[in-house]
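Re: Re: ligand-bound prediction request (bumping)

Still looking for help on this. To restate: I need the protein modeled with nicotinamide-adenine-dinucleotide bound, output as structure tokens. Inputs repeated here so nobody has to scroll up.
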Amino acid sequence: MPKTQSHLEAQLEALGFPFALPLEAPHYIDGAFVKSGTPFPIVYPATGEAIGQAYEGQAEEVDRAVQAAARAFRGWSRLAPSERRRYLRAFAAKVREYKPVFEVVESLDVGRPIRENRQGYVERMAHNLEFFADFAVTHGSEAYPMENGYWNVVQRFPVGVGALITPWNMPSMLATWKIGPTLAFGNTAVLKPAELTPLGAWLLARCAHEAGLPPGVFNVVQGFGPNSAGEYLTRHPEVRLISFTGETTTGKIILKNAADSLKRVSAELGGKAANIVFKSADLERAVAVTLRASFFNQGEVCLAGSRLLVERPIYQAFLEKLVAAVKALEPGDPLDEATTLGALIAEEHLQKVQGYIDWARAHAEVLTGGRQPELPPPFDRGYFLEPTVIAGVKPTDKVCQEEIFGPVVAVLPFDTEEEAIAIANGVPYGLNAVVQSRDVGQVLRVSSALEVGTVWVNDWFVRDLRVPFGGAKQSGLGREGGHYGYEFYYETKNVCIANV
Ligand code: NAD
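Reply:
Sorry for the wait, this slipped through. Here it is.
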């Protein structure tokens, strides 16, 4: 008897998705797709159903991928940057060709609404590859002539094999953010995506393959973290650099594991951003910015403005507008263009986020949201949570200190600039902050006093790849972006030449 088409299969067909369920996410090693290791399910967060399987890479797969990358490094590192750019441009062109497929895959992997994927997400992926390819071509070295006639020439050269370890919240975008500079600056790469989101990495491997990248230059090993592909990569003696994005606790473990073989580590870690709204802000705009900062990607963003600080004279008016806008968000089917809030990544994560809401019900006030929305089948089995606003909290409460990583924002009133700065800085994290104000002096004073890697003024998550990106305090180590990534992705050598 022919199998009846599921709701998802019908949707995928309507969207022109070229692959049939169940999907497969193999490794990509030395230019070949490899299915080895123990299979594990790929779960669609919006319905809780398994839509395919990936394969857990162990020490063997990691070693094969690293050896392939090390072999490929010999040729790749010697190419002129302009030759590497040709490959990376072809890679980016493939990403653009697969744009509608990536838009669906990101929703399947993450549960994010497809409308958010259609707002420049895939273009940013392609740009990540092209930008660094161009950058490597157009930026040279420095020279320091000495008074005695000697010349110092500062040279940069590739480091070796890079392990790129990414989280599940923006998998394909963050992968390309690392692949771009790694390959453009002459290194080779082994990407280990999060176990919850293996599909984007598989599709990226397809793009690299079809773009004709030489075998071994870019590899993917699927799998988990501890005692699995992630840990083996960080301990492998031939891996020279690790670009990691993920939780602060994981970053610390990776740093320890990498220390034995003295690998360089760049770590982009957790955040607990303050979004500070001053009374001089354009309120309509501030509400729109806050809505994105708190609920884009279900709030599963390291940069999320999860603490909302509002100056007391506008506190009530602002909250009324915000709560109305939050109530208008439509959780549901991520593949429906009308949906404005997707599903959380997994059951376990949903429970963790609900734990914070339970705390708020007992100790503070839940202004809106906090429950699982009632959705029709098959989405009644998905990991959805209403967008939630919590008030009546103190800056030291756990909802204001810990990264919740969900559609939950905690609101705090403040009276003075000094108080807002103290609250904003009063957390262990220091990734970013948002300042909303039309008073230029205030913007300068406040942004200068914030202990973070990025301050967005009157907006959120606007990226220019020339500028440094990274976190202060417990939010990271090092900066990537533009020439700030040189220290990490390049080795540096000084050649001191006698004038004889
Ligand atoms: P995570 O730390 O649990 O996992 C991230 C990656 O590390 C995954 O691929 C995982 O398999 C791997 N991993 C886990 N343990 C490992 C180990 N011992 N050795 C090697 N690899 C290991 O993070 P997550 O839950 O996937 O992602 C959410 C976190 O990522 C949040 O804390 C968020 O703030 C952070 N994040 C930060 C940024 C940034 O730019 N600063 C961006 C996005 C997400």
